[in-house]
Amino acid sequence: MNRPVTQESRESEIGNLLLSEQLIRQRVEALAADIRTAYSPGPFTILGLLNGSLLFTADLLRELPPETEVVFWRVKSYEGTISTGNPEGLEAEGGEFAGRRVLVVDDILDSGCTLRAVEKRLRDLGARAIEYCVLLSKQRPRSPGAPVPRWIGFEIPDQFVVGYGLDYEGRYRGLRSIRVLAEEKMSMERFP
Ligand code: 5GP
Ligand code: MG
To answer: pLDDT tens digits, residue range 45-65?
Structure first.
């Protein structure tokens, strides 16, 4: 049995398939090609938001010019499947952003609170031009003042998804596909 078949059957119990590994790979390559053109000639800095954009940022980066600088910030705003609406951790994050063009990369745009808070922090640090690339964008209303990404991989329904970097309580980040988390995997499973 080859790897995709084994992998698919292993991942299928986590939830219904939303985006396959192949579809994600094709879309990431297309986004990277567009970003390469938009930022040519450089320089610019990629700011990846951890933990969710771990795989997306790594895959994008491999398609970008070798000089591309990358920085990661750690931001947390979800408890389980619920947004706290209050991104934590940004006050501890910094870097050499004065006068730089910055492309913020995140896994998913939901309420928009995270990107709004990141934008404020980057402006305080003197970033010159800030743009956004998100792999997923949920079809739902945004918070007032939420930035609009220039690059969006996929528009998805307003459901809780996992895989390709997105977790549920620290699990499922390593899935190659993106899935709608099955109800029976939520909450009760950890403390049966
Ligand atoms: P926002 O601040 O836009 O409401 O939420 C953005 C962050 O919430 C994302 O970076 C991601 O970490 C988390 N998030 C939002 N929706 C989902 C989801 O469906 N699944 C997972 N695993 N995380 C999500
Ligand atoms: Mg995130």
So the answer is: 999 999 999 999 999 999 999
pTM over 0.85? The answer is: yes
CA dihedral over 120, 39, 30, 14, signed as positive or negative: negative
- Residue 189, pLDDT above cutoff 60: no
For ligand 1, whether the C-beta of 78 sits within 6 Å is yes
> Measured in angstroms, how far is the CA atom of residue 186 from the centroid of ligand 2?
19
Which ligand has its closest atom nearest to the C-alpha of 118?
1
Whole-number Cα distances in Å, 70 to 29, 82, 111, 138, 176: 18, 29, 25, 26, 23
- What domains lie within the chain, and their CATH numbers? 21-157 (3.40.50.2020)
In 3D, which of 106, 162, 165, 101 has the Cα closest to residue 133?
Answer: 106
Q: What was the pLDDT predicted at 13?
A: 87
Give me the DSSP letters along 108-163.
EESSSHHHHHHHHHHHHTT-SEEEEEEEEEESSPPPTTPPPPSEEEEEE-SS-EEB
